[in-house]
Specification:
9 helices; globular; 2 domains; five-stranded mixed beta sheet; alpha+beta; Beta Polymerase, domain 2
Length: about 190
């Protein structure tokens, strides 16, 4: 059996803290730590029969909600990361626009130097798709499952879900207009969120 953890960590070229911490929307003492990385998979995983796309590590078991101090880490193969970035995946793009990276090798720096090559109109449709999905989940059109029942009980809806829907809209507009993502989210958008 292949040791994907070792493969990912040994060949990692870029890693950063993403999620609410990167966005500037984290609430002190309440959020987990979301990290994303990219690794260059060995040649046998590119040209051979072996296959590697990502390594995931979570402090909590799958299906259990992460809490304060928990780590959610995903390290993508360079090929998968670039495929998702070209498609304009909003979650993926954040890594390239962080002001600071935990790990950044020379190859990681090269990836950051070509981040403008990933900017496309396709990203606008992807942002809109993510925003629509968030809205549908928020209104119960997509799923009746509630991620944060304490927020629903207090406010009548999942306020964090709503914030992320609005954030996707604001960030999508910024990405299409300016061809970049500013992190943490600047004012006045941050206060609005």
């Amino acid at each position: 059996m292949t040791d994907f953890k070792n493969l990912a960590l040994t060949n990692e070229i870029l890693r950063g803290v993403v999620g609410s911490t990167a966005l500037g929307t984290a609430i002190e003492g309440q959020d987990d730590r979301d990290e994303m990385g990219v690794c260059v998979e060995p040649a046998e995983y590119v040209c051979g029969l072996s296959h590697f796309e990502q390594y995931i590590h979570r402090t909590q078991p799958e299906g259990v909600r992460s809490g304060p101090g928990d780590l959610d880490l995903v390290i993508y193969s360079l090929r998968k990361y670039c495929r998702l970035a070209v498609q304009g995946n909003p979650s993926i793009l954040v890594l390239m626009w962080l002001p600071h990276h935990e790990i950044k090798t020379a190859a990681g720096e090269e990836l950051l130097n070509v981040r403008d090559a990933f900017v496309s109109r396709a990203a606008g449709w992807r942002y809109l798709g993510y925003l629509t999905s968030q809205r549908r989940a928020l209104t119960g059109e997509k799923s009746k499952q509630v991620s944060r029942p304490e927020l629903v009980a207090r406010y009548g809806y999942d306020t964090k879900f709503a914030m992320h829907a609005l954030r996707l809209g604001l960030q999508g507009i910024q990405y299409l207009r300016e061809k970049r993502i500013v992190l943490p989210i600047p004012e006045p958008s941050l206060s609005l969120l």
